[in-house]
């Protein structure tokens, strides 16, 4: 029976025959004994396979291809280890190779590789320590997202990826079209619609956010969330932006902005706590390898409340800051990531929730405050990241919403159904969007968003 490497490493049942399959990470040793580290992806650590020279002379291992990168099966006795660094090891009785990896050409050599180089070999980088750790943490965080919402009575709703409306009203969408030679037959079309360019006669795009459809569900199920891919045709040539990213968007009926902030803060602290508890080996490695402050920073977020203040107060702080900014700040301007990071990293030295932004720099659906100038928006700002969450209380008045849409040139005919939510049984409600990759950036301490998603989409990337 086959065991996972992690199960064996934690096993107390010794002196028994075991079987593992995985990939060779290193082979070293001398003419008496060879040590082969085998990793099967089940966790960060590899298991040490001990091969005695009588049965496995080095020349034979070499000839068989038992080298870095090869896929192998090992049979042997699980025994207490004599060596430092591991408590158990396998005394090999049989080693077979499924597939060799030519030592001359295999791109992943024993020496470390730069993250830039690894980005060019996205098909092999999951085999490195770094990407194994990142991918396992990414999985754990996705699982924790569902766990949190399920435990708190939320329903998971699947919102469409192909959509006819622009949820953010920002025009940053990718168009969906059919290939010219795969058009549906024109026989049913009496309207003169050009199928050549459209989705069965309608102009559609890839979604920028599942929020508006999430609101539909919240108006029936009360507490819901979406978790899916979203697409933005914006300049994504930064270390914080992707053209395709995953977003988590809870939406809750009867929640106001205060409730929304409480939810965002509780949710983020839960996720970080979950990572600290369940991803110890991977986090320890990333902490040692890339970012000595990582574990301390994660613990800090778990232990400390976020600073809450409104946009107007933040602008005052920024205007009197000693630091010189590339972009000047004045009331009414959108904050750049240098400003967000100043507030978080230099001024408050903790995560910040900023609220009540000027209406002109925020989306059409946000609830207008009584001052007529600001909206009930909230952004959560994190150290090293800047904006990790954007959300708001939604405008629930039909009259005010139609007025805002007119002011901002958001076409009513695309969103007639959204307006009907305000016409029939409208209620206060709030929600937010957490950028999943920004969360993974924070939790792993990685510096570039292209290194926390298996296949990053950004300008000039379409290899896979
Ligand atoms: O602030 P945004 O644009 O808000 C929305 O889309 C709302 N509909 C959310 C809601 O209220 N339901 O995006 C939300 C979050 C940002 O805070 C950021 O973390 C992430 O999504 N994000 C990106 N992540 C990676 N690449 C990009 N290009 C991103 N754009 C936004
Ligand atoms: Mg935003």
UniProtKB/TrEMBL annotation:
Subunit comment for this entry? Answer: Homodimer.
Q: Where is the Aminoacyl-transfer RNA synthetases class-II family profile domain?
A: 135-454
Keywords in alphabetical order: Aminoacyl-tRNA synthetase, ATP-binding, Cytoplasm, Ligase, Nucleotide-binding, Protein biosynthesis
User: Please, which domain of life does this record's source organism belong to?
Assistant: Bacteria
Cite the InterPro entries for this sequence: Aa-tRNA-synt_II, aa-tRNA-synth_II, aa-tRNA-synth_II/BPL/LPL, Asn-tRNA-ligase, Asp/Asn-tRNA-synth_IIb, NA-bd_OB-fold, NA-bd_OB_tRNA
Q: What's the protein name? A: Asparagine--tRNA ligase
Gene giving rise to this polypeptide:
asnS
* Catalytic EC class: ligase
Kindly give the Pfam families that the UniProt entry links to this protein.
tRNA-synt_2 (PF00152), tRNA_anti-codon (PF01336)
Q: What is its EC number?
A: 6.1.1.22
Q: Which organism is it from?
A: Hymenobacter taeanensis
């Amino acid at each position: 029976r086959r065991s996972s490497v992690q199960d064996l490493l934690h096993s107390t049942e010794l002196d028994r025959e075991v079987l593992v399959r995985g990939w060779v990470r290193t082979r070293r040793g001398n003419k008496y004994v060879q040590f082969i580290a085998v990793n099967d992806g089940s966790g960060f650590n590899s298991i040490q396979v001990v091969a005695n020279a009588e049965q496995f002379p080095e020349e034979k291992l070499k000839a068989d291809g038992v080298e870095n990168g090869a896929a192998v099966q090992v049979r042997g006795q699980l025994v207490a280890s004599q060596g430092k660094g591991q408590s158990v090891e396998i005394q090999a009785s049989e080693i077979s190779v499924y597939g060799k990896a030519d030592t001359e050409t295999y791109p992943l050599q024993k020496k470390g590789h730069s993250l830039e180089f690894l980005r060019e070999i996205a098909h092999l980088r999951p085999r490195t320590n770094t990407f194994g750790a990142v991918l396992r943490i990414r999985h754990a965080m996705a699982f924790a997202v569902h766990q949190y919402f399920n435990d708190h009575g939320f329903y998971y709703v699947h919102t469409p990826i192909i959509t006819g409306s622009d949820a953010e009203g920002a025009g940053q969408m990718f168009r969906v079209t059919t290939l010219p030679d795969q058009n549906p037959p024109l026989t049913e079309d009496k309207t003169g619609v050009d199928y050549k360019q459209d989705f069965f006669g309608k102009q559609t795009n890839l979604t920028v956010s599942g929020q508006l459809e999430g609101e539909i569900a919240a108006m029936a199920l009360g507490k819901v969330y979406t978790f899916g891919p979203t697409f933005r045709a914006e300049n994504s040539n930064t270390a914080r932006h992707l053209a395709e990213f995953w977003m988590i968007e809870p939406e809750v009926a009867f929640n106001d902005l205060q409730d929304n902030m409480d939810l965002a803060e509780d949710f983020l602290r839960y996720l970080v706590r979950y990572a600290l508890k369940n991803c110890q080996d991977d986090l320890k490695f990333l902490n040692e390898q890339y970012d000595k402050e990582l574990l301390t920073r994660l613990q800090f977020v778990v232990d400390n409340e976020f600073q809450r203040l409104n946009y107007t107060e933040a602008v005052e702080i920024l205007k009197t800051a000693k630091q010189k900014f590339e972009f000047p700040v004045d009331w009414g301007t959108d904050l750049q990531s240098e400003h967000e990071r100043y507030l978080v990293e230099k001024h408050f030295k903790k995560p910040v929730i900023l609220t009540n932004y000027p209406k002109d720099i925020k989306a059409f659906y946000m609830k207008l405050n009584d001052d007529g100038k600001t909206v009930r928006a909230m952004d959560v700002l994190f150290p090293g990241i800047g904006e990790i969450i954007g959300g708001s209380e939604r405008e629930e008045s039909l009259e005010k919403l139609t007025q805002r849409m007119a002011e901002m040139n958001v076409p009513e005919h695309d969103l007639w159904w959204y307006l009907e939510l305000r016409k029939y049984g409208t209620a206060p409600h709030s929600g937010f969007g957490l950028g999943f990759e920004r969360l993974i950036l924070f939790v792993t301490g990685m510096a570039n968003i292209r290194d926390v998603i298996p296949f990053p989409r950004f300008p000039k990337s379409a290899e896979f």
